[in-house]
Write a structure and sequence with these properties.
single chain; alpha+beta; 4-stranded antiparallel sheet; 4 helices; extended; transmembrane helix
Length: 254
């Protein structure tokens, strides 16, 4: 069996990727009484595995690794006037958000709790009321998948450098992960679950109204929830306006 060690990683969020030296800055961040260099915030997302303390686990600046409470009310901007916020809220009523589904299993809840404890103990980061983003569990399950495929590859006499065999063993398989059954199809894509969030006009909070189940290829309504269609509609808006975008479908009568 192969022992996989996961080292700390550094994350920075902004636009663009690459190894251009200009991506790095001389900024320092203080952690545990010591100063450490950080990446400038012009990259989309950089995650580097390395031995501590050469890279510090910094998840504060990456919204991809945590879910802020404020995301429930993205229309609300502190410092803006009530009138401006209400105009934004009205605009957001026409928005549906698709995001990775947050599992409700005991395994996920325990994993999330442990992530928060480790973040606080090892890196002095407090999630407070924020949720651990599903990207974290996805990384964890990716390592599990690689480990399974690697062990099978070595058991059959191949070497760790035989990437083509390892990848083949990752495809078209199902295993138990933190989020439940993890299924990888014959193309190497994960049959992931997603949630559809809609703004509740009464509370102003985005709520899950339906879930897409990847393995079943179907959308399942969330019990007790329903879609709110902007403009007072009772049904989804048509794909195109009744008269077309240029009104060509409603010629003027002579």
């Amino acid at each position: 069996m192969v022992s996989v060690q996961i080292y700390s990683y550094f994350v920075s969020l902004r636009n663009g990727l690459g190894t251009d030296p200009s991506l790095y800055s001389t900024d320092l961040v203080r952690e545990d009484g010591a100063y450490h260099p950080v990446l400038s915030e012009i990259t989309s997302m950089i995650a580097r595995c390395n031995r501590p303390p050469s890279m510090q686990l910094t998840i504060r600046s990456s919204m991809e690794y945590r879910t802020k409470v404020e995301s429930e009310k993205p229309w609300l901007k502190e410092g803006d006037s009530e009138e401006t916020n209400q105009k934004a809220r009205l605009a957001y009523e026409a928005l549906l958000t698709v995001t990775a589904r947050i599992p409700e299993t005991d395994e996920y809840k325990n994993f999330s709790r442990e992530v928060k404890e480790i973040a606080k103990k090892e890196f002095d980061f407090d999630y407070k009321q924020e949720e651990v983003n599903t990207f974290v569990t996805a990384f964890h399950e990716a390592v599990l998948l690689y480990s399974l495929a690697l062990n099978e590859t070595l058991a059959e006499g191949y070497t760790v450098s035989n990437g083509s065999i390892i990848i083949q063993k990752m495809w078209n398989r199902t295993f138990d992960g933190i989020t439940g059954k993890v299924t990888i199809d014959e193309n190497g894509d994960r049959d992931a679950d997603y949630s559809i969030l809609d703004l509740n006009p009464n509370t102003g909070v985005f709520e899950v109204v339906a879930n897409y189940i990847g393995t079943e290829k179907q959308v399942v309504d969330e019990p007790g929830k329903s879609f709110h269609w902007a403009g007072g509609r009772k049904h989804p808006p048509p794909d195109t306006p009744k008269c077309g975008y240029d009104k060509s479908k409603c010629p003027k009568k002579n």
